[in-house]
């Protein structure tokens, strides 16, 4: 019979500065980091833009690029703005094989808190873009939008499209 070695846990991987590490002396390093993260979030955005465009194509409809591209891009802008918080969370409480389980709960709490920031921010950006695109605000104005958001908050998710609002009873 063969015996297996006893499993050992590996130290978690962190990206915090150690004793021998030096901070970058390049003054433009934050600009490069900004462009790098904008590219990463932009790539994620384009994946969803392609899905939005395919929805129109599959229905043999002309692609509404305002809805397919710009509203999707405005959804991802808050994530770009919240990237420093995400990086701080990853660095301060790393996840990995050697990390305490309490880090998982901490990360889940941070993600729920960030969703309470991201969703209203994205909705506000999309509302103002829609008003600007349409040329006139809706009949009820921002008050109606806030009321709709309040009534539909638990039903909110990214996949609910405006044509489904009446079906689920919020429009």
Describe the structure.
60% of the residues lie in helices and 0% in strands. It is mainly α. The chain has a domain at 31-136. Helix 1 (29-58) packs across helix 2. The radius of gyration is 22 Å and the shape is elongated. The model is unreliable at 157-161 and 164-171 (pLDDT under 50).
List the topology elements.
Elements: H1 29-58, H2 65-92, H3 102-134, H4 141-152
Helix pairs in contact: 1-2, 2-3
Can you give keywords for this protein?
4 helices; elongated; 60% helix; 171 residues; 0% strand
End-to-end distance: 67 Å
Low-pLDDT segments, ≥5 res: 157-161, 164-171
Number of strands: 0
Classify the helix fraction into a percent range. 55-70%
Average pLDDT works out at 75
Task: Note the main sheet.
Answer: none
Number of helices: 4
Radius of gyration: 22 Å
Look at the helices and sheets and give the structural class.
mainly alpha
Oligomerization state of this entry? single chain
- β content, as a range? under 5%
Q: What series of H and E elements makes up the topology?
A: HHHH
- Tertiary shape: elongated
Summarize the structure.
The chain is mainly α and about 170 residues long.
């Amino acid at each position: 019979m063969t015996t297996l070695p006893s499993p050992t846990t590996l130290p978690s991987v962190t990206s915090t500065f150690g004793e021998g590490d030096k901070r970058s002396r390049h003054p433009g390093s934050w600009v490069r980091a900004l462009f790098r993260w904008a590219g990463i979030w932009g790539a994620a955005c384009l994946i969803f833009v392609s899905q939005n465009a395919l929805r129109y194509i599959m229905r043999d409809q002309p692609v509404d690029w305002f809805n397919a591209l710009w509203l999707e891009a405005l959804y991802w802008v808050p994530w770009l703005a919240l990237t420093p918080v995400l990086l701080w969370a990853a660095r301060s409480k790393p996840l990995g094989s050697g990390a305490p389980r309490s880090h998982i709960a901490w990360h889940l709490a941070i993600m729920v808190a960030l969703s309470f920031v991201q969703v209203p921010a994205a909705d506000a950006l999309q509302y103002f873009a829609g008003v600007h695109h349409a040329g006139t605000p809706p009949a009820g104005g921002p008050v109606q939008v806030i009321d709709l958001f309040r009534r539909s908050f638990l039903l909110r998710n990214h996949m609910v499209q405006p044509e489904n609002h009446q079906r689920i009873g919020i429009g």
